[in-house]
Every structure is written in C-alpha cells, then in structure tokens.
Design brief:
With 482 residues, the protein is of the alpha/beta class. It folds into two domains: 116 residues, Urease, subunit C, domain 1 (Roll); 335 residues, TIM Barrel (Alpha-Beta Barrel), CATH 3.20.20.140. It has 13 helices and 21 strands. Strands 1, 2, 3, 4, 5, 16, 19, 20 and 21 form a nine-stranded mixed β-sheet that branches. It has an eight-stranded parallel β-sheet with strand order 6-9-10-11-12-13-14-15. The chain has a two-stranded antiparallel ribbon with strand order 7-8. Helix 4 runs parallel beside helix 5, helix 8 runs parallel beside helix 9 and helix 9 packs parallel to helix 11. The structure holds zinc ion (ZN). Zinc ion binds next to loops.
C-alpha cells in the first residue's frame, strides 16, 4: 500500500472542519498537516488523492449490525461478506455485530460461531458484542472472561421477545451486577415484551393482521417504561454503564435525558429509520408492502400518535433530531438486519407478528445522517461525532478508530458534498435484499473514496476491496466514562 497523501481536503472531526492534508504510511495515518506541508513527500508517494472541495472524515463506525442472524424462522440475508462490502460502499469501515447466546446455550460457543461466520469473510474491520439471552452462573462467568480475554466489552440484553431472547428484571439485574464488576457496558433492547405480546394476541384475535399493526401493538409508552426500568436497574446495580439501543420514541428519550441530568452512566443510540421514516409512509402502505419496514422498535407515527405528541408538539422525529443535537442520543447506528420480501418477509403474510423483524441500512447511514446536516438538523461536526467518533469511543476502539489523527488506522472517507446519491434497488444498492427501505431517497452528497486501513476499497464508483481484508478488533472498555 505504501505511502498515500490526501491533499486539499477539509478534515472534519467533532471539534471542527479544517483544511488539512493527511499522510498515510501503510495501514496507519502518520501525520496531519497544514495544506501543502507534505509537498516534499508528494513526489515519492505511491498514491495521491486530491480532495479539493471535499470533506475528509474518519471511516464510519456502525456499532449495531446483524449479519447472518437466525431470527423469525429465517436468517438475515446479508452474510459478513456481502454486508461488509455494502458497508464499505456506504463509507463504513468498522462494524460491531452481535454474537448470540440463548437460554441454555454456552456463551463461548456462541462467540466462536460468530468468529466462524466472520473470520476471513469481511471486507472491513469488525468487532463483536455478545447477546446474553440466558442468564445463569456459566454465562455470568463468561461475561468477565470475554471482557478480559476476547475483546468483547459489551453485552446486549432484551426486555422484549419473551421465549426468544427475553430476560426478566431479576436476570437483568444479575447481569448488570456482573458487568459492573468487570467494567462492561450493558446494551438494552428496551420494550416491555410481556405487555406487547398481549396487545399482539388481541390484535390478531380482532383480525388485525396487516403490517401496520406491528407498530400499533408496540406503543411508545412501552418503550419508555422499559427504558425507565432499565435505567433504575442499572442504578441499583451500581451505576453500571447502560446503552439503550435503537431508540425510536420521544417519551423514551425523555427517560434517558432525565437519567443523564442526574449523572447516570446512561447513553442511547437511534437509527436512520426513526429519523426519516414514518408509519404513515411505510408500514401503513396498502396490502403487504409495509412488511419491508417491520422492525423493532417500530417506525412510529409522524404526528398522529395517540400516546405522544412530542416534547414540543412535533412528534417523535423532531424529538430524536433534537436529542441528537443535545447529546441525549450519542450515536447513530443502523440495526442492520435485512430480510428479502420473497420467502422471508412473506413468512408473515396474513400475520404481522410472523414477519421477520429488521431493516437493512448499513450502506446508507452516513448518507442519511449527512442529509440531516443538509436539512439543518445537526452540524457537520456532529455528523462525524455521532457516526464515527463517539461509537468508537463508546465501545473501546478509540483512537485506533473514529478520528483522523496520527497513529489512527487509515480508515478514511473522502466525501463529495457537490454530488448526489440516489438510493434504490436500481440505483445505489449493494445489500443482499430485493428491496430498499429508502427507495427513492436522494442525498445531497456522495461517498467519493473509502480507505480501510490504508487500502482503497471504494473509488470511482467501483469496489476495489477484498474479502478477508477486514480484521477482528479486540475492544477495550468504554472510553466514555470517568
Ligand atoms: Zn439489533
């Protein structure tokens, strides 16, 4: 790979956007200098990338993906190979996926299974969180082992999906105590799954089977209540760091804001689908088409939610964008969990509860949140912070990942604000899905060039990367805590 110089661009970090040149040697950024400072080096460089008029940002870090996840009677349709290639197309150079342990299963075997799926198959770097679906003495012991020896420092638990991944409050408390002991982060799917199952059964009994009922049977107060309960349990467990995943609701966000106001180690992420999609425009489409957007937590009503009108009366989305600006929401991830309509989403024809839950989005997060910058919802710096820097810090990968700085991995995206990206199945679309959740979206910006550890993986609308280039990242503890 040799020496690469990226010149004449504007480097964007959480603290500002500055004209700077970036010098890369092999897989690592070795220097960042004033424009022209490396002119003497340029002649001997193996590659010079002219970023005139463009932004130079750290590679995106998506800390919530589900490649090849067995779920809902089928498996997520992206492999680690297809999913990480799609990620690269979208300016993402690191993903953190979820290894699975269910009740009665061995945590170490679950993690080994995820290594088997991913190792040698990824085009970009990857790490793992561990799902703890069964709390017992063995799995609790394994948590500490994974933190110390395996580079897995975060554990996901579920207050939803009874009978699949669900843990009750006592089990959650016990796992949180273990995490507090070893410094790990607890990630929580916060929805009251017991109450949701009652609403689902009642809806089906009334003959309400269309995809829209997926959202109606998961009302936002059941996300807010579970978020509150998780926060209380984390406090009782010794202020263990708690990270609420895929937050979709303004009333749930209020719980996080209040906890943070009280000095708790509570963080939250949201995803592009909750910032851009509405129930009316997606799930409520006639017939079965709405199945494309069945995910949990659900896409919510824009301004017709009987339970929540928004803190300022503008619905959930306005609250989430504000939360992103205010750092009540620290991270944007995708919860990338793609399923095709054919043979997969179709499992739920005539029964919304049997539709596999998930949306594919790993390719489009950088684009969709950049569009928030264009729309005036957040700053350029905050885009980089929520999509690159904070996810790296939150999950113990900084400063190797998430920043353009000497010593960091040369994961770099050159972003062109003067070109456009049209998203759609016949436009930009590299995920292994037969539809796009963002069909027809036009982004006022474009991924220009992507480097993964010094290797150019996307350039001139072509993929130049290699399956197996991606390395496993052993993560440390969260760096977001005192
Ligand atoms: Zn998920």
């Amino acid at each position: 790979m040799g020496v690469t110089l990226i010149k004449n661009g504007t480097v964007v970090s959480p603290t500002g956007a500055t004209p700077q040149d970036v010098l890369i040697d092999g897989e690592v950024i070795v220097a960042v200098g004033a424009p022209g400072y490396f002119a003497a080096t340029e002649e001997g460089a193996d590659r010079v990338i002219d970023a005139t008029g463009k932004y130079v940002i750290p590679g995106g870090v998506d800390v919530h993906t589900h490649m090849e996840l067995p779920f809902g009677g089928t498996s997520a349709s992206d492999t680690f190979e297809s999913g990480t290639i799609a990620a690269a197309w979208g300016g993402v150079t690191t993903i953190v996926d979820f290894a699975v342990q269910r009740a009665g299963e061995d945590v170490h075997a679950g993690l080994a299974e995820w290594h088997r799926k991913a190792d040698g198959n990824c085009a970009i770097d990857y790490g793992f969180h561990q799902i703890i679906g069964g709390v017992d003495e063995e799995s609790l012991k394994a948590m500490s082992y994974l933190v110390e020896h395996e580079g897995v420092s975060s554990f996901k638990m579920f207050m939803a999906y009874p009978g699949v991944f669900y843990s009750d409050d006592g089990q959650i408390l016990r796992a949180m105590q273990q995490a507090a002991d070893c410094g790990a982060m607890i990630m929580m799917h916060a929805e009251n799954g017991i109450a949701i199952d009652v609403l689902v059964a009642q809806a089906l009994a009334r003959g309400e089977t269309d995809p829209r009922y997926h959202s109606y049977t998961r009302p936002s107060p059941l996300e807010a209540e579970a978020t509150h309960r998780a926060i209380v349990l984390s406090h009782v467990a010794g202020n263990v760091p708690l990270y609420i995943v895929h937050m979709s609701a303004g009333d749930a966000l209020e719980e996080v804001a209040a906890a943070r106001h009280h000095g708790r180690n509570v963080f939250a992420e949201t995803c592009p689908q909750y910032l851009w999609l509405t129930l009316e425009e997606t799930l409520a489409k006639p017939g079965f088409e709405g199945a494309k957007w069945v995910c949990s937590t659900p896409v919510r009503s824009k301004d017709n939610d009987p339970h929540w009108k928004g803190l300022h009366g503008h619905g959930h989305q306005a609250d989430l964008w504000r939360g992103l600006r205010m750092n009540e929401l620290a991270v944007v991830s995708t919860d990338h969990c793609p399923f095709c309509m054919k043979d997969q989403k179709e499992l739920g024809l005539g029964n919304f509860a049997a539709i596999p839950n998930g949306i594919g989005g790993v390719e489009h997060r950088m684009e969709l949140i950049y569009q928030g910058v264009v729309a005036g919802e957040l700053s350029l710096e905050r885009w980089v912070e929520t999509c690159c820097t904070t996810p790296a810090r939150m999950f113990g990968m900084y400063p190797r990942k998430g920043i353009i700085a000497p010593g960091a991995d040369a994961d770099v995206v050159v972003w062109d604000p003067n070109r456009r990206t049209k998203i759609g199945i016949n436009d930009k679309h590299h995920m292994n899905m037969d539809h796009s959740a963002y069909e027809g979206f036009v982004i006022d910006g474009k991924v220009d060039t992507v480097l993964s550890r010094g290797m150019v993986v996307v350039e001139n609308d072509q993929f130049h990367g290699r399956t197996g280039h991606g390395q496993y990242i052993k993560r440390g503890l969260s760096q977001y805590l005192v």
